[in-house]
Design a protein that fits this description.
- By secondary structure, the chain is an alpha+beta fold.
- Helices cover about 20% and strands about 30% of the residues.
- The two termini are about 35 Å apart.
- About 10% of the residues have low confidence.
- Pathway: Protein modification; protein ubiquitination.
- Belongs to the ARTD/PARP family.
Length: about 375
């Protein structure tokens, strides 16, 4: 759907806010202009009858000072004597509010929706159902960065859209929605805002300090209760993490720092391979798949398969395939006759660590 993007970091833009301020239009609010008593009804007759937009009740009762009380000839019942048009209008307003709440709840909690075919899937609803975002790995890459508050997408049918990652909403477009469908294999990382940027819990900050709580513990506690808290101590100072407010609080000074929960980025190629591997694991053994064959180029342009040869070679095609499945952009080392070699999957070459001589390698599907 969209292919052009612009990220919005903490240092740029004013539309993206960390607090969930209300940016909806007036129609998105539950507040209504207070209804007034119909002056014609209070004079004795209203020709609009049940279609009157005003209340058919005693105006003094509405103010709380009717001197006739229960003997008043005018109605003192706000519910039964309320015009049907007004009742219908209020019912429709409540229905719209309920529907908007349900839609926002689904959109905001969308990262809990799982998608077995991909590690993640970003989608937009422009009014006619959910549609996949083209090249959504760009959104995922930006979303995985804790310092990125949002992203602007260009070339959509609705023009440029600004997505707020914190609230998982499209800004200034109340009728449009965004969601991220994740995977149960997603690894979530937790960050806090330090004096010089964002730092991951459990890792060293700019001063070399390490938080005693790490991402895995925070994620575990968060899954138990998204409104819970976690307390820890650093250098005799007590801190509390509040998931509901997404902040870390110094219990001595009450100073607060923002925290963020972002997924560990999985590239499209790695994600595809991992997803394929998981699918193979769930398949029946009655339909086995053959392991691809790995080969290196020799003299005369001939190709030779990697095979373990006693103590001379320590590597087989199956070993290479297993490492390739784990990280298609990575590398691995092996030994031949005591000499060290490295396979580079990204460049598909084999390099001698001693002479730096290279050979081409290839992956052949059987």
């Amino acid at each position: 759907m969209a292919s052009n993007y612009e990220d919005v970091s903490d240092e740029s833009g004013t539309d993206f806010r960390d607090s969930d301020t209300n940016s909806q239009s007036k129609s998105d609010s539950d507040s209504e202009t207070p209804q007034q008593a119909c002056r014609y009804y209070n004079k004795g007759h209203c020709r609009n009858g049940k279609q009157c937009p005003d209340l058919h009740v005693c105006k003094y009762f509405l103010k709380g000072n009717c001197r006739y009380g229960a003997s008043c000839r005018l109605s003192h019942n706000l519910n039964s004597d309320r015009p049907s048009a007004q009742k219908n209008r209020e019912r429709r307003s409540r229905d719209r509010t309920t529907q908007r709440y349900r839609e926002r709840s689904r959109s905001y909690s969308s990262d809990s929706d799982t998608d077995s075919s991909k590690p993640y899937r970003w989608q937009l609803n422009l009014g006619s159902g959910w549609m996949d975002v083209e090249n959504d790995y760009v959104l995922e890459a930006q979303f995985s960065r804790p310092n990125t508050k949002g992203i602007r997408i260009f070339n959509t049918p609705c023009g440029a859209l600004s997505i707020d990652f914190t609230r998982m909403r499209i800004l200034k477009k109340d009728n449009l929605r965004v969601r991220r469908k994740g995977s149960k294999y997603t690894e979530w990382l937790w960050y806090y805002r330090g004096n010089h940027g964002w730092y991951q819990f459990g890792k060293k900050d700019a001063q070399g300090s390490v938080s005693p709580v790490d991402s895995s513990r925070l994620e575990s506690e968060f899954k138990k209760s998204s409104c819970g808290t976690v307390q820890f101590t650093i250098n005799s100072t007590d801190y509390e993490i509040r998931f509901k407010d997404m902040c870390q609080k110094n219990l001595s000074t009450s100073h607060k720092r923002r925290i963020r929960r972002r997924p560990k980025y999985v590239s499209p190629q790695v994600g595809g391979v991992n997803t394929l591997t998981n699918m193979f694991k769930t398949m029946s053994t009655s339909s086995p798949t053959k392991t691809p064959l790995w080969q290196f180029s020799g003299r005369g342009g001939n190709w030779h398969s990697f095979k373990p040869r006693g103590s001379s070679c320590t590597l087989s095609s199956a070993d290479i395939e297993a490492e390739f499945q784990r990280n298609p952009q990575g590398s691995m080392n092996f030994t031949v006759n005591g000499e060290q070699y490295m396979l580079d999957f990204a460049q598909m070459i084999q390099t001698s660590q001693k002479t730096q001589a290279t050979r081409n390698i290839r992956r052949v599907k059987q």
